[in-house]
Amino acid sequence: MAVIEAEHVHKRYGGKIAVDDVSFTVAEGEIFGILGSNGAGKTTTVECLAGLRRPDRGRVRVLGMDPWRDARELRQQVGVQLQESDLPDKLTVAEVIGLYAAFYRAPADGAALLDLLGLGGARHTRYRKLSGGQKQRLSIALALIGRPRVAVLDELTTGLDPAARRSTWALVSGIRDQGVTIVLVTHFMDEAERLCDRVAVLDAGRVAALGSPAALAGRLGGGQRIRFRPSRPLDGRLLAGLPGVTGVSRTGGTVLVTGTEGALTAVTATLAREGIAAEQLRVEQPSLEDAFVALTGAAPKPAATAGVPRPLAQTLGGSR
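Above: the chain's sequence. Below: its structure in token form.
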């Protein structure tokens, strides 16, 4: 079942086309990633999904409703965490959570949600005194306080330290386990690989590719990159002619062998026969980051750090 449908969505700001004929669907219970470099149209796309922007052309349906026409009802079922949020400086964290909880028919436990996001100790801190990372976590809490059926998260781990990022990844996994459909906008390729069932790569306002992270990486071919430091001097010609090997290069003391999936067996067998140990051996497959660069020509942000999921049923009280 498609929870979100975007068909030929187009949005222009003056003379600039931000979103140009974008189409995709998001299935119920899916984590769907929207990737792209700055200015690719990611935020405008999710704002159209959330009813914050009205497309100039095209059709958007979320839970079968028009985000613009049915905005009041959708606010009860869709939680949104924007890239930038601004709240009254003098409100405390607890006051903000209480205020937003009052907007929903069946809100989550605000105190438990703050504890889960590492904000329990900041309940009585005024918004203006929060760090950037704390403000980001608070915006995530506000997106989840209504126990939404759909959560739209825009750059949710930007500004978070590694520990907070791990717990946030765990939070996202746990939310999906409760049946919530998630649209995740991110610059971090390993974040998308870790969390997303499928991704749409936007480039200059258009969908450049759509599919699972593994499928997009697989489009680059089944090649391998084998890196190692030989235990003694190695003539690269010894490996260049092996079955499956397409290239051999050296940077300092590290040898890089590229080739097909059969190259690893041939290389390790030859090194063993020659009495050479492959120290610091590392085998790399094409990744989502490789696919992103190939599709857009843009380098993504540095990798985030993985985390371990933890249960959320007690905090969010289950999905509706």
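Confidence is low (pLDDT under 50) at residues 303-315.
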